[in-house]
Amino acid sequence: ATLKFDNIIYSRPSTHLGNSQILYYPQGDWTLITVPASIKYIYGTLTGELVFAAQRHLPLDPHDNTIDPFSFYPDFPAKLYSTELESCLENVKVTWVVSHFARWTVSSHHTVILVLVVYNLYMNIYVAKFRSDRHLSFMSGQ
User: Fold this and answer.
1) What is the spatial distance between Cα 105 and Cα 20, in angstroms, rounded to a whole number?
2) pTM reported for the whole predicted model
3) What one-character DSSP code corresponds to residue 129?
4) Alpha helical stretches, state H, the chain
5) Using CB atoms within 10 A of its CB, is residue 48 exposed (0-12), middle (13-18) or buried (19+)?
6) pLDDT tens digits for the chain (142 residues)?
């Protein structure tokens, strides 16, 4: 399954892995930190909304004591995550999605997620928010 929305193509991993990797605001709330996820299903609701059923990438295990090397570079839009995905699916409206991301698995437990910013009306807002979120996360030790 594939969906084209605002000239951006989304798909399930079985169709195209890269187009299934999305970064979105949970519940569409732009005050929250963006979340990387993998699209599992694409569907439309009875009201005509386009929705993804997606699994979030899990954050690093705090007991692992792994330091995210990208946290030292707040202007570089990459972050280290667990290779594991949430077991449950989450509904994500297509309008909540900010961009795709590239993923590089660097070990059996760690993957680098690099944000691929989509150039549109919201880009300046997103980049400013991303930098702010990274700075606040770094300052709080997360």
Assistant:
1) 16
2) 0.78
3) H
4) 123-140
5) exposed
6) 787 878 888 998 888 887 889 999 999 998 998 999 999 999 988 998 889 999 999 999 888 889 999 999 988 889 999 999 999 999 999 999 999 999 999 999 999 999 987 554 444 544 445 544 544 443 334 4
